């Protein structure tokens, strides 16, 4: 089971709506169960530097099946995942804003959001992750 383009568009639309509500343009990426990019949107005015970050947040959330926010908490010095950001050819993002997407309790992909503060990225990703 995985996400298709229609699913990705639904997720992105919900995330875009939340980003517009808070007034913060975002980059929003959705990956499938294999961590492959299905769709990406860069809202008008969103940072160019956040394109890769959003895609890699989605990849990270799917690769480890947990929110990147949780990975961030556990990747600090003396914690169990310290240094993980250097794995997977540098694709691992330890910033808030990446969340696995589930259907019927099974991880089917993930969303990654970047362009605001960590709290804003997380809020927008949460809106998208619950859209299905």
Structure write-up:
With 132 residues, the protein is an alpha+beta fold. Helices cover 39% and strands 20% of the residues. The chain has four helices and four strands. The chain has helices spanning 5-22, 50-64, 68-73, 118-129, and strands spanning 27-32, 37-42, 98-103, 106-114. The protein has a four-stranded antiparallel sheet with strand order 2-1-4-3. Strand 3 (98-103) and strand 4 form a beta hairpin. The longest helix is centred in the first third of the chain and has 18 residues, at 5-22. The radius of gyration is 13 Å and the shape is globular. The chain starts with a helix and ends with a helix.
- Main sheet: strands, sense, barrel: 4 strands, antiparallel
Number of helices: 4
Percent strand:
15-25%
Tell me how many strands there are: 4
Query: What is the overall shape?
Result: globular
The H/E string reads HEEHHEEH
Query: Which class of secondary structure composition applies to the elements?
Result: alpha+beta
Detail the poorly predicted runs: none
- In what order do the strands lie side by side in the largest sheet? 2-1-4-3
- Can you give the helix content as a percent range? 25-40%
Intertermini distance = 14 Å
What is the typical, i.e. mean, pLDDT? 96
Radius of gyration: 13 Å
């Amino acid at each position: 089971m995985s996400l298709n383009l229609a699913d990705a568009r639904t997720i992105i639309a919900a995330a875009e709506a939340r980003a517009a509500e808070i007034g913060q343009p975002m980059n929003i990426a959705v990956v499938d169960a294999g961590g492959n990019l299905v769709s990406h949107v860069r809202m008008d005015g969103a940072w160019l530097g956040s394109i890769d970050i959003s895609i890699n947040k989605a990849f990270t959330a799917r690769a480890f099946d947990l929110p990147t926010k949780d990975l961030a908490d556990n990747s600090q010095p003396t914690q169990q995942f310290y240094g993980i950001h250097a794995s997977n050819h540098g694709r691992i993002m330890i910033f808030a804003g990446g969340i696995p997407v589930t259907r019927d309790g099974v991880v089917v992909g993930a969303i990654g959001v970047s362009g605001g503060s960590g709290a804003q990225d997380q809020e927008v990703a949460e809106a998208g992750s619950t859209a299905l």
